[in-house]
DNA sequence: ACAAGTCATAATCTCGAGATTTTATCAAAT
DNA sequence: ATTTGATAAAATCTCGAGATTATGACTTGT
């Protein structure tokens, strides 16, 4: 039975080589926004971008419209598109909402997850652990980011609610953007790996209550790190014009 | 402080006469889908629709792309758009997720809401009460639907989390569609008004716990009504081709 | 010197037609 | 009789240009 968010789910998994130009541009644009190459607040003029992405203006507009779904770009009527601004207040909202939703999803997964879920989770945890002992305290890299994403996806994969997972996908992308914006400014002084271990063990032990608590603490603590840096980091990185875009 | 979902919020309130054709078509299409005039599963061929809505094919496509954000339309690569299908399983997911999120939002509103929130809520409750004593057990009408929507919006308006409200907006639209699809098949044998009274009183009394419980029961009971009718109602109404569209 | 109004520039929004892909039809072979 | 393959039709996807609207600079008046 197809579900409204199947499309989103498809987007989440490995970006199956898009067969339409719109999907292609959509994915590239999204990556550029999340990676921070397109800074928050940047005006997205279709006239300029179409020469960069080598597509027509109409195609560009459609891709931008798709990005609005993810709340990564904002459409102002008759005034074009801009990259969604960032703020500490927004980050706090994203974090709190995600912590609540993901705790709920994990509890659900623990209740409903089958052997396949456990197996996938175990694999994702193993991959993440290796990535974490390899970088050993260094700042986050792309590979770690991918492993972390897969671990969190595997955690909630056992949750039967497609809508809950859909919303979590959106929120994860948002938090990922914040994490990358402040990537080089945030030295991880806390033991992230220990937190992941606690989450994993609680999940495998089928301890709903503990898993919910731990995951909530885990997500909320990422906010504290950024908050400690102050709003300056965001203001400094954001609202910059003429961003450099990858070739 | 602008927020990604400001656009959505704007859509929610009185549809300020859209200044672009795309927004106009988007709103009309959305209304036609939610009202049930465009049945679930219907193929949305831009070539056909453009003559109905009197716009170009490209404009039509953009409006359809916007609908994908709301998960009311599904885009299949190179194979066009269709109205999102319905199923009892999907409705159960929508309902459960909304019950959880709205209970959370109401508790938050009770904690954070100010006098203005109480005043607006009181007004919305009054309006809804009048609408309910007027129809007195009859099937739901458009005016009641509008009042109900405003009541629920007023309830969560005090919740500071824009993301939570954003997700609730999406879920409400989904549930509204299901309600209208089975509108004439579902005689309200329960006392909906009593439930609304309980919610309102708990909210005004600032009783977080009770308000959360009551709203969760309230939302979940709407599922029970539809479930009692069986999947037949949805199958019967849905998956029909060549829908009739308003002039 | 400052404010308000006016006009040129630039960007967005919209359109109709052409290129590509999918879907349906139909004949032929096992 | 069923399946396979090729062909025709329909729909989607993409483009470049024209119409509409917003932005910024300039002039004018107090």
TrEMBL record, chains A, B:
<feature type="domain" description="HTH gntR-type">
    <location>
        <begin position="19"/>
        <end position="86"/>
    </location>
</feature>
<dbReference type="GO" id="GO:0003700">
    <property type="term" value="F:DNA-binding transcription factor activity"/>
</dbReference>
<keyword id="KW-0805">Transcription regulation</keyword>
<keyword id="KW-0238">DNA-binding</keyword>
<dbReference type="Pfam" id="PF00392">
    <property type="entry name" value="GntR"/>
</dbReference>
<keyword id="KW-0804">Transcription</keyword>
<dbReference type="InterPro" id="IPR008920">
    <property type="entry name" value="TF_FadR/GntR_C"/>
</dbReference>
<dbReference type="GO" id="GO:0003677">
    <property type="term" value="F:DNA binding"/>
</dbReference>
<dbReference type="InterPro" id="IPR036388">
    <property type="entry name" value="WH-like_DNA-bd_sf"/>
</dbReference>
<dbReference type="InterPro" id="IPR036390">
    <property type="entry name" value="WH_DNA-bd_sf"/>
</dbReference>
<dbReference type="InterPro" id="IPR011711">
    <property type="entry name" value="GntR_C"/>
</dbReference>
<dbReference type="InterPro" id="IPR000524">
    <property type="entry name" value="Tscrpt_reg_HTH_GntR"/>
</dbReference>
<protein>
    <submittedName>
        <fullName>GntR family transcriptional regulator</fullName>
    </submittedName>
</protein>
<dbReference type="Pfam" id="PF07729">
    <property type="entry name" value="FCD"/>
</dbReference>
């Amino acid at each position: 039975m197809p579900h409204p968010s199947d499309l989103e789910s498809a987007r989440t998994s490995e970006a199956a080589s898009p067969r339409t130009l719109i999907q292609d541009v959509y994915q590239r644009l999204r990556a550029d926004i999340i990676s921070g190459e397109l800074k928050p607040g940047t005006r997205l003029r279709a006239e300029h971008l179409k020469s960069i992405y080598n597509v027509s203006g109409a195609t560009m507009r459609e891709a931008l419209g798709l990005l609005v779904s993810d709340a990564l770009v904002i459409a102002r009527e008759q005034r074009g598109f801009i990259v969604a601004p960032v703020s500490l207040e927004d980050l706090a909202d994203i974090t709190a909402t995600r912590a609540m939703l993901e705790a709920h999803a994990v509890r659900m997964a623990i209740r409903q997850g089958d052997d396949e879920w456990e197996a996938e989770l175990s694999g994702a945890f193993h991959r993440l652990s290796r990535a974490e002992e390899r970088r050993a305290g260094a700042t986050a890299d792309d590979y770690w980011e991918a492993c972390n994403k897969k671990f969190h996806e595997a955690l909630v994969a056992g949750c039967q609610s497609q809508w809950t997972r859909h919303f979590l996908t959106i929120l994860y992308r948002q938090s990922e953007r914040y994490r990358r914006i402040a990537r080089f400014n945030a030295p991880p002084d806390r033991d992230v790996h220990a937190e992941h271990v606690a989450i994993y063990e609680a999940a495998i032990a089928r301890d709903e209550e503990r898993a919910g608590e731990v995951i909530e603490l885990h997500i909320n603590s990422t906010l504290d790190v950024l908050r400690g840096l102050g709003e300056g980091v965001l203001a400094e990185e954001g609202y910059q014009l003429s961003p450099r875009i990858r070739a």
